Amino acid sequence: MRAALLLGLALSGPAFAREPKSVAVRELHVVTSGGFTAAFEALARKYERDTGVHIVTEHGPSMGDTPQAIPNRLARHEDADVVILARSGLDKLEQAGSVTSGTVTDLGLSKIAVAVKAGAPTPDISTPDAVRDTLVNAKSVAWSDSASGVYIQSVMLDKLGIADQVRPKGRMIPATPVGRIVAQGQAEIGFQQLSELKPVQGIRIIGLLPDSLQKVTPFSAGVVAYSPHQAEARALIAYLSSPKAYPIIRDSGLEPASQKAKP
After folding, report:
1. pLDDT at position 11, please?
2. What is the pLDDT of residues 151-160, one digit of tens each?
3. Strand 112-117 relative to strand 82-86: parallel, antiparallel, unpaired?
4. pLDDT, position 17
């Protein structure tokens, strides 16, 4: 009996108490760019209900010089387990070792849309020639400082042959939805991913750019290399890319990416 008592004390002593216990992860930090924000907010709420894991969300553009830009956040080692951004930017982060190799997963495909302030005349964007005339005649134009805006400023305007006419009256908008600039009357016409324009009040979305001018941007997720929760981050990405996420992704203005897409 004495021996049993001594054994019980030994098992409850400091050496036994120091044995590590496995604690389930109850919180994940995600940084997402604007193109996938609306979809992610809805999916995150559902994931929290289904798993009990709390999702802390931060936002930032896929690229650019602002402190909020996702590459700059990772360079500062901000709390982050998963990042969601344009695939071209995510591929660079993977190559730089900021994102765990082999975790890049396409979630949604985004197209560029055009918007004006609610109540303003509707410009014609039905053909490339119509887009050219609309841009030449517009008093002011806005596009984002992320993937869609970089394409418009450095590729599309040259393709239309109007770069010299439009760039001087164009504004690249950093870290702010282009739709908000249009709604405030600071730009007559705005270009951004459809999924980023849809949530903005006070604008009218005219439609998508014509196919010959369109640029499809894959928005993708990856696990942050310095995250201490690698397995849990992978599980979240698996959920975001699963068929059960497709209806929410479509409702946000994106097309689900069921397979690897061309950036």
Report:
1. 42
2. 999 999 999 9
3. unpaired
4. 39
Q: How far apart are CA 229 and CA 86, in angstroms?
A: 23
- DSSP type of residue 179: H
**Tokens representing 187?**
């730009």
Treating both helix axes as pointing N-terminal to C-terminal, what angle do 230-240 and 34-51 enclose, rounded to 10 degrees?
110
Region 185-203 average pLDDT: 95
Q: State pLDDT tens for residues 163-181.
A: 999 999 999 998 789 999 9
Q: In angstroms, how far is the first alpha carbon of the chain from the final one?
A: 72
- Global model pTM greater than 0.85: no
3-class secondary structure, 44: helix
Alpha helices in the chain (DSSP H): 2-11, 14-17, 34-51, 70-75, 87-95, 128-137, 147-151, 157-160, 163-166, 178-183, 194-197, 230-240, 246-251
Amino acid at 31: V
Tell me the residue type at 206: I
The DSSP result for 63-125, as a single string, is SSSSTTSHHHHHHTT-S-SEEEEEHHHHHHHHHTTSB-TT--EEEEEE-EEEEEETTS-----
CA distances from 94 to 44, 222, 228 (A): 24, 8, 17
Residue 207, sorted as left (phi over 0), alpha (psi -120 to 50) or beta, turns out to be: left
Distance CA 209, CA 131 (A): 8
Residues 206 and 203: their CA atoms lie apart, in Å, by 9
Tokens linked to 183:
């709604």
Q: 185: burial class by Cβ within 10 Å (0-12, 13-18, 19+)?
A: exposed
